[in-house]
Specification:
Layout lengths: L2 H39 L4 H13 L3 H11 L7 H13 L3 H13 L5 H17 L3 E14 L10 E4 L2 E4 L9 E15 L7 E13 L16 E11 L10 E14 L2 E18 L2 E14 L8 H4 L1 E15 L2 E14 L6 E15 L7 E15 L13 E16 L2 E12 L8 E13 L1
Antiparallel strand pairs: 1-4, 1-16, 2-3, 4-5, 5-6, 6-7, 7-8, 8-9, 9-10, 10-11, 11-12, 12-13, 13-14, 14-15, 15-16
Helix pairs in contact: 1-2, 2-3, 3-4, 4-5, 4-6, 5-6
């Protein structure tokens, strides 16, 4: 699927979605105006205030929704569910101290029962963590995966060698494999308690992958997947540059370090810096941008020819737009541009990638009070190299045209425990037969959050 075809389809989808949202917004605005007129004429009508608050929240005006709901709290006999609703809105606006106050009062009311009490208690526990100056969070993962072609071997019968077509050896044909992966992700948030919401935000990850067919030794020319051990660290200062004029704008300059070991030996080190920019103009829309520069250095090994020639810089730019469609639905559009510049230009490449993801959350069909999330995605990537690789073709430069489609389902197993089941199919329709491949992946991962 060419990248331009996917871009065109996404553009058409965006136009249709924008038109539908515009019509919905106009209808909602009319209902909100009518509800306001009713409460203005009959301010003692608590039912009218409740309806008005619901419409304001539905329109994304959480501040107005809080004000309308707090009007109901003037009644000493107001049901505790109203305080839960106000606490939820404060939580969604990031006012965790106010959310804690409302939720404490709601939980202290014996009239609060059932799922509303469970929601209030779990949300209160989370706000208590968020109100701490020093915050830790993270996740442990354990997963198994099956792939039909994990090393992306060509599915053509012939490949180019110095410009001549030769038959693909049996050892170099696609072969299925399975792997076991264990990982940990630790996140740290240190609030500097400044007026611009400054905080030091850090993330550390460790990941180990063990393939069933891996020999465990680095051997040149062997088309078997490698066992992997990865470490990464990312830390930076997060702050709001315009806390009053643009409270939804957040910047985070950061530094990053990464190390990759394969087959038990050093393979690659990365070090660099970058900038995250997040802008949330309204509660249901989020724009995210990342710009980075990584210095990559490859180790001298038997299976890496001329490692020093591959050393260089990887420049990246990622833009992401997330839109909450309501009723547990979310759509995300992503664009990524990457430029690889090495010591020798046969390793230089440029790529452009686009991806769209639609997810929906819904009540679990198995457990009351739990939710499942299903996500579907489709993406396309175009990658081109600077000059021909003489070992493949002295005249033709490699060009990749890759697409992928996938689905995953996140199942809540218990508080803090979840299971992610995923399936994805990818295909590269390159101009050179050496790089035409396809791969199908099935995986299951258990996640324990903390």
């Amino acid at each position: 699927m060419p990248l331009r075809v996917l871009v065109g389809a996404l553009g058409l989808l965006a136009c249709v979605s924008a038109t539908a949202q515009s019509n919905t917004a106009e209808a909602l605005e009319r209902q909100t105006d009518e509800a306001f007129r009713q409460v203005f004429q009959q301010p003692q009508d608590l039912t009218g205030w409740s309806k008005y608050a619901q419409l304001l929240v539905q329109a994304g005006n959480y501040e107005g929704g809080v004000a309308a709901l707090e009007r109901l709290l003037l009644d000493p006999q107001a049901p505790p569910e109203v305080r839960v609703d106000v606490g939820v809105l404060y939580y969604r606006m990031g006012s965790y101290a106010m959310a804690e106050s409302m939720l404490r009062d709601a939980v202290a009311d014996a009239r609060l029962q059932g799922s509303n009490r469970s929601l209030a208690e779990s949300l209160l526990a989370d706000t208590l963590k968020r109100n701490k100056r020093n915050q830790f969070s993270g996740a442990l993962t354990l997963g198994v995966r099956h792939q039909t072609n994990p090393t992306y071997q060509t599915d053509d019968a012939q490949v180019l060698s110095a410009g001549a077509l030769v038959a693909v050896a049996n050892a170099d044909k696609p072969s299925a494999d399975q792997d076991l992966a264990v990982g940990v992700r630790l996140n740290h948030f240190y609030d500097l308690e400044s007026q611009n919401s400054a905080a030091i935000v850090s993330s550390f990850g460790a990941y180990v992958v063990d393939y069933s067919s891996s020999s465990g030794d680095p051997v040149a020319g062997v088309s078997k997947p490698y066992d992997l051990q990865m470490l990464d660290l990312n830390t930076g200062l997060q702050f709001k540059p315009l806390p009053t004029q643009a409270p939804g704008l957040t910047l985070r300059p950061y530094i990053l370090l990464a190390n990759l070991v394969t087959q038990g030996r050093q393979y690659l080190t990365n070090q660099g810096y970058g900038l995250d920019l997040n802008w949330q103009p309204q509660e249901k829309t989020l724009y995210q941008f990342t710009l980075d520069d990584q210095r990559r250095e490859f180790a001298n090994r038997a299976d890496i020819a001329n490692a020093d020639q591959q050393n260089g810089h990887l420049y990246g730019f990622v833009a992401r737009v997330s839109q909450d469609l309501g009723a547990g639905q979310l759509i995300i559009g992503e664009y990524a541009m990457r430029r690889n510049r090495a010591e020798r230009n046969i390793h230089d490449s440029d790529s452009n990638e686009i991806r769209v993801t639609y997810s929906t959350s819904y009540a679990s069909p198995l457990s009351k009070g739990e939710y499942w999330t299903t996500a579907f995605w489709i993406g396309a990537l175009e990658r081109s190299y600077s000059v021909p690789n003489p070992g493949v073709s002295p005249t033709e430069t490699r060009k990749d045209n890759e697409w992928r489609i996938g689905v995953n389902n996140t199942v809540s197993l218990a508080p803090l425990w979840s299971l992610v089941l995923a399936a994805e199919h990818s295909r590269n329709q390159a101009n050179l037969p050496n790089y035409r491949y396809q791969n199908t992946m099935l995986s299951g991962t258990v996640i324990r959050s903390f």
